[in-house]
Amino acid sequence: MKDDLDKYISRRKRRDGKFAGNFESGYQDFKVGVLLRQAREGAGITQEELARRTKTRKSSISRLENHAEDVRLSTIERVAHALGKNLIIQLVEA
Question: Is residue 54 within 8 Å of residue 65, measured between CB atoms?
Fold first, then answer.
């Protein structure tokens, strides 16, 4: 299944320059949201509960999990702490 997805992405990048140019940044935004959702689910709490713990709205948590572009590190850190986690930032070779 992963091979099919990789093939699709490769073909789409070749055909669509805009998609290719925005793919990596979009993927990173998506990945952050997925990691936050997995951490919340792993902690066994709902979006409503996380919103209460972070003093925000459920819609904000949903937006963070589904569209994590341009999110502040302080927001991610607040969510991480509410989930009993620490935020670690790592720089790696491009």
Answer: no
Q: Residue 8, class by beta-carbon neighbours within 10 Å (0-12 exposed, 13-18 middle, 19+ buried)?
A: exposed
38 versus 25: which is more confidently predicted?
A: 38
13 versus 44: which is more confidently predicted?
Answer: 44
Structure tokens at 51: 């919103």
Q: Assign domain 2-82 one CATH number from 1.10.443.10, 3.40.50.720, 1.10.260.40, 2.40.50.180.
A: 1.10.260.40
The answer to whether the CB of 50 falls within 8 A of the CB of 81 is: no
- In this prediction, residue 80 has a pLDDT band, given cuts at 50, 70 and 90, of very high
Can you tell me whether residue 70 is helix, strand or coil? coil
Q: How far apart are the first and last CA of the chain?
A: 26
